[in-house]
Structures are given as structure tokens and as C-alpha cells.
Amino acid sequence: MNSEVDLLLSFFEDPQSDGWCGDATSVVEFLRPLREQLDAPGVLEVCVNRPGELQVETVHGWQRVEAPAMTQERCLSLATAVATYCDQQINQERPLLSATLPSGERIQFVIPPAVTRNTVSITVRKPSDLIKRLTDFEGEGLFDRIGERAALGAEDEGLQPFQRQLLALKAAGRYGEFLRLAVQKHQTIVVSGKTGSGKTTFMKGLVEEVPLHERLITIQDTAELTIPHHPNVVHLFYSKDAQGTARVTAKSLLEACLRMKPDRIFLAELRGEECFSFIRLAASGHPGSITSVHAGSCALALEQMSLMIRESGAGGGLRLDEIKGLLGIVIDVIVQFNRDERGRFISEIAYEPRRTQRTSDSDREAAAELQGSLFGGLMP
Predict the structure, then answer these.
(1) C-beta separation of 219 from 236 below 8 A
(2) Angle formed by the axes of helices 320-330 and 274-283, to 10°?
């Protein structure tokens, strides 16, 4: 075949032509040139930007690796094999595919025309099976670069005792104890940061502080948020972009959670309209839930969530100031992750119970009325 169009059509018009049926064997075979790098210690991501070479990320940065076996034809074969294995589609009209490999890694494909001609973009992220506790993060220095600490003041006299205790721990730089108490007191937590900054590993560490008698539900598109030590856990999965056999979304799974009697809900990531559903659940009897968002600071995390809600169908009728006021009441703690040449670190922890206290009586009544009108009819 002489043209890229012919090559693409040969793979996507007849996926059975090579005699494989989309089982795990085909995926494993086409992935073989990447397996050595994926199995190497310390590797975080393995990427194909163009045929014949890999970009491999470790804790020390990116490295180029020759991979002559990863031809354009093999890259397309791998994309088709993964799509069939996961009961999804990838073709010129749907050139994006996000899936989980049989071995557990998350993989993202982008094929032409959404990338440069004669290339296929493949990104494989290795999952972390490691479970760390807050004491482990402290020992690694994860909290050592957090910025300004605010001391307790006279305006804090009206706070609840545990809120004053949380503020005191934060002011003293005892962040592990602060977060442990926040989890125990059912504070709703958002972990913010860019891709690969360590959000998922940290969320798993927070879950380790949840009492073992509680019923937990996780919602994710890939099986990264593992919870091995809690006996009463349900893992729910949705297909990204509603591909796959089950056309379920994060939003529909959050709504289903209302009838599954969870004590806490752990949503792996906020991306869109499910943000409003998550806030609904947290505000209607499920405090202590945890999620993550892509943002560059604690303030921007709130802005991102505000825009997600504003752009959703259910939250489209709310003003931004109403949404931000609601987020200020429902979201208790925001933990900001960053990453530089020295590694991953937490740069900021936002905890401001004072803002609710400073709210005027009329504002509090308006917020309560809004919250009741939005969430009062939900199943407890």
C-alpha cells in the first residue's frame, strides 16, 4: 500500500483480517516492543511520538530509545487490537482511544487525521500498585515545600473544636496529622495538580486513613484507585467518551451511588458535568468524599470546578458567585501538587473554615436556600 489512507483503511475496515479476535493475546503481541521499557524499574510513562522511537519517562526525566519494531503498521495494529479488546472504536472519524491494557497500564492513542501524517501517538502510563500512608509521604519530604502558614486568630473563636484543631495543626506545619484528622472528621477533599504529579497515589494514601467499617465506592475510568485493605468497597467504572459496551458516564454512576448507601465516594477525577453531581452528593449526606482536578493552584481548582458546573446542564442556570459560594461551603480542603526537576511535592494546602464563619446571616440564609432547592429532593 502506498498511501497512508490505504494503510488506515486496511486496518479499520476489516479488523479480523489478520486472524485475531481482539483477545488479550493480540494486544500483548503488538505491545511486545514496549514491554522491556514498561517493565523496567522507575519507568513512569512510555510514549511513541513517531514510528521507530520511544520517549521513556522516569523520575530523572525523559529519554529517547530506539524501537525499530514499532513501525507505523504495528502502531495501527496495536490501536485496533486494543479497541477490539475493549469493545471500543478507533478510526479516521473517531481517532482517539483511551483504554486499559490487559496488564493494567492506561493507554491513549491518537491517530491521523488528529496527529501529523504518517505518525501515531501512543502514551502508556504505568499504574502504581504501591500503597503509601501519610507517614510515608512525610518521610519522603512531600510536605517540606508548602508555603505560607496562617496562625490562629481571635476570629477563630466561633469555629468548632475540630476546625480549630485542624487550623492549629496546619499552622504548626504538622500536615500529616492535619490530613489524618481531616479524613477522620469527614472533610471533603480535592487533590489538585497536573497529570503525573502524584494525585492518585496521594488519594490512595488518604483512603488508608478511612476507618475500616465504612462502606466505600470508587468511580474511575481505569482501575488505578485500588483500595486493598477495606472490606466493604465497590469499584464502579465508566467508559471515557461513552465508548465501550456500557454507555455509562461518571455522572450516571454518581447518581447510582445515591441508591448504594456509601459512607464515602472517591471519584478519581473531575472532568466535566460530573462535578455538579459530586458536589450534590457531598452536600446531601456524603461528606468526607475525595476527588481530584487538573489545576495549577488551590484557587484555580475552585475556578475549574466552578466552570465545570457552570457549563453543565444542571448547573447552567446558576450564577458563578452562587456556584463559588456553594463550593466554599461543600469543599473543605484542597491539596495542591506540583512537580519540578527535584520531583513531586505539595506546594499548598487550602483550608479556610473562617470563610463560612465570616459569611453574613443573609448570605448564609441564601446559600442554605440554594443548597436546599438544589439538593433537598435527593435520596439520603
Answers:
(1) yes
(2) 50
| pLDDT for 182 | 98
For the chain, give me the number of helices (H) and strands (E)?
14, 13
Q: Is 335 helix (H, G, I), strand (E, B) or coil?
A: strand
d(CA 333, CA 188): 6
Q: Write the single-letter amino acid at 295.
A: A
Lowest mean pLDDT: which of 172-176, 183-187, 246-250, 290-294?
A: 246-250
- pLDDT per residue over 271-307, tens digit each? 999 999 999 889 888 899 999 999 999 999 999 999 9
* Residue whose cell numbers read 468511580: 219
Q: Which residues contact 189 (CB under 8 A, 6 or more apart)?
A: 179, 182, 183, 206, 289, 290, 291, 332, 333, 334, 335
Helix axes 250-257, 274-283, angle to 10 degrees: 20
**Is it true that domain 134-375 has CATH number 3.50.50.60?**
no
At 210, the amino acid letter reads V
Residues of the chain with CATH 3.40.50.300: 134-375
The tens digit of pLDDT for each residue in 106-160 reads 899 999 999 999 999 999 998 877 789 999 999 999 999 997 666 655 556 678 8
Strands (E), 148-210: 189-192
189, 333 contact by CB (below 8 A): yes
Burial class (CB in 10 A: 0-12, 13-18, 19+), 1: exposed
The pair phi, psi for residue 289, each rounded to 5°, is -75, 160
The string of DSSP codes covering 97-133 is: EEEE-TTS-EEEEE-TTSS-TT--EEEEE--------
Domain 4-125 has CATH 3.30.450.90: yes
Q: Give the pLDDT confidence of 293-343 residue by residue, as tens digits.
A: 999 999 999 999 999 999 988 888 888 889 999 999 999 999 999 988 888
- All CATH 3.30.450.90 domain ranges of the chain, comma separated, are 4-125
Q: Which of 335, 339, 269, 254 is nearest to 305 (CA)?
A: 269
In sequence order, the 6+-apart residues with CB closer than 8 A to the CB of 73 are 7
